[in-house]
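Board notes, transcribed. Complex of a protein with iron/sulfur cluster.
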Amino acid sequence: MKKMAENRAEKILQILRKNFTMPKWVTSDREPFETLIVTIISQNTANRNTAKAFGNLSKQFKITPEALANAETSQIEECLKVAGLYRNKAKVIKQISKIILEKFHGNLTPILSLPFEQARTTLLRLPGVGPKTADVVLLFCAEKPTIPVDTHVNRVAKRLSLAPANGDYEAVRESLQSLYNPKDYLRLHVLLILLGRKYCRARNPLCKQCPVNMLCPSKQL
Ligand code: SF4
């Protein structure tokens, strides 16, 4: 039974690989601290507004724990206005920068060098860092074996029956991880997002054109 599910999951991945090109941002060599900040900004915020807010912040400050810990919260707020919940995010960014500066000597690398579970627990103790933010930093900056579950990954994985329909964050992550080889986690995460944006939209999914419709139990043709 497990083998059949794995074979089906593998076929889905192969089809997605043929149909989508990995975007450039996947291979960008962004510093772990920058990735952390951009992921905090992206919470409940559209990509375009995340990029604008991060651009504003980068113009105003060096994206380092030192610069942001010493910035006025109101100045950070001003940069983040285009993003949702910007007041709270500005507060969190300043707090997190202070903690990383004071407790971790301004460097996330020692945390990312810890064994996976320990690194994840340490990140999750930081203010404003939930499982998705921690998993993004761990996967993209340290190649740790985890699959971040954002809104697209959650919806698409469930529609494709790669995760339980009523599963929470951890259930979806564990289900996907049990079906795929860790070497494919990053690729899968990105490809499910691309599928979700282009075809498997929250409303009115484009099932007729969807490249994996023959393997999808939720297709509406
Ligand atoms: S067939 Fe439809 S529901 Fe299934 S993955 Fe494609 S777009 Fe989503």
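The CA atoms of residues 69 and 94 lie 5 Å apart. The domain at 2-24+147-215 is CATH 1.10.1670.10 (Endonuclease Iii, domain 2).
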